[in-house]
Design brief:
Helix 10 packs parallel to helix 11. The chain contains 11 helices and 14 strands. The protein has 366 residues and is of the alpha/beta class. The chain is 35% helix and 20% strand. The protein binds S-adenosyl-L-homocysteine and iron/sulfur cluster. The site of S-adenosyl-L-homocysteine has 18 residues, from strand 10 and strand 12.
């Protein structure tokens, strides 16, 4: 038997081609797309306006469910939810939903594991198993979107109201889960485009942030292709000697190549770049490093996100103490570089930056 086609892997164009090759009229693609990305159905049987015969063929030859949720945890604050998914091949991955004010942000994975080996990151410790497909990437968002929509409907029913549904239950998307999105460029791009399609989920690229360890060719390609997403660059050190140790890929793309690519990106897109900097006690948190960092970033349209290191099993590194964080931030601000300290969220369920990894289904969450 041939492998079923994953519907979420198809662009609108490809879906149209598939259905017309089956002898269906073109408008069927619009209908199916609407069921997938507006109605958020997770079963072909729910595509009610399709002829029975088409539903049967879709059910026989395509698949919708790419991710099986096997564990779910909520932080004490109730604002962060983490899900462990199992893929069809048995691999596992984690994704996080963060609720904050009006934003409902999905923090999603682009790979199973990661091959970049950053010394402080739990994902990096396990190496790379494989890239995710576009469908597996966007299905993480749809999973959360469905859950949020179900809550909306329940609330409205309890209040005796007719539900006025949010067009986008998940409002923002950050590629800050497992993996390096620019090492899986094509699938990442396709997932962003599919979710951005106006006939479907309609998530503006401006609500999407791609976080990269600093893969220069990927950054240049993003700039050239003009996908107007936000770019976040994980810097973590302001000199090559230190960055080589923390972020091994720096040996391939040292700061002298990375910074010009980031500057070119900001210049080309006119968009403010986020610089991520995990503060590690006694390693990269001196006022001297802050000064170097402000030198590196001078004149760049950017914003620095300081993240006191989140704990990682088997890694002895510690977060910088509060006073050190403040001193580092002040140094940047004095140099005119906007910097904020990112709130630590979801640490109680290991849902913070760099804490996601492949887990066994029965494995204790901590
Ligand atoms: N691979 C991409 C995106 C995933 S990591 C990247 O590296 O940018 C998301 C963010 O978490 C990155 O900025 C990463 O450097 C940061 N991070 C990794 N481990 C961390 C830790 N233990 N504490 C705080 N931030 C961490
Ligand atoms: Fe990979 Fe990013 Fe973790 Fe580095 S910080 S190992 S690039 S996921």
């Amino acid at each position: 038997m041939t492998k079923p086609i994953a519907l979420y892997d198809l662009s609108y164009q490809e879906l149209t081609e598939l259905l017309t090759s089956w002898g269906e009229p073109r408008f069927r693609a619009d209908q199916v797309w609407g069921w997938l990305y507006r109605s958020l159905v997770d079963d072909v049987a729910g595509m009610k306006n399709l002829p029975q015969s088409l539903r049967e063929r879709l059910a026989a030859e395509t698949v919708l469910n790419l991710l099986e949720p096997v564990a779910e945890q909520e932080s004490l604050s109730g604002q962060t939810r983490k899900v462990l998914f199992r893929l069809a091949d048995g691999n596992t991955l984690e994704s996080v939903l963060m609720l904050y004010d009006e934003r409902r942000t999905a923090c999603i994975s682009s790979q199973v594991g990661c091959g970049m080996g950053c010394t402080f990151c739990a994902t990096g410790q396990g190496g790379l198993a494989r890239n995710l497909t576009a469908g597996e990437i966007l299905a993480q968002v749809l999973y959360f979107a469905r859950g949020l929509r179900a809550i909306e409907i329940e609330r409205a029913a309890a209040a005796g109201d007719r539900a006025r549904l949010e067009e986008q239950p998940v409002t923002n998307l950050v590629f800050m889960g497992m993996g390096e999105p620019l090492a899986n460029y094509a699938a990442t791009r396709k997932a962003i485009e599919t979710l951005g399609d106006e006939r479907g989920y309609n998530l503006g690229a401006r609500r999407v942030t791609v976080s990269t360890v600093g893969l220069v060719p990927g950054i240049r390609r993003l700039a050239e292709e003009g996908l107007p997403v936000n770019l976040a660059v994980s810097l973590h050190a302001a000199d090559d000697e230190l960055r080589d140790r923390l972020v091994p890929v720096n040996r391939r793309y040292p700061l002298g190549e990375l910074l010009p690519a980031v500057r070119a990106y900001a210049a080309k897109t006119g968009r403010r770049v986020t610089i991520e900097y995990a503060l590690i006690d006694g390693v990269n948190d001196s006022v001297e490093q802050a000064r170097r960092l402000s030198g590196l970033l001078e004149g760049l349209l950017c914003h620095v996100n300081l993240i006191p290191l989140n704990p990682t099993p088997g890694v002895a590194l510690q977060p910088s103490p509060r006073e050190t964080v403040d001193a580092f931030r002040n140094e940047l601000e004095w140099a005119g570089i906007p910097a904020t300290v990112r709130m630590r969220r979801g640490i109680d369920i290991e849902a913070g930056c760099g804490q996601l990894r492949r887990r066994e289904a029965g494995e204790s969450p901590r």
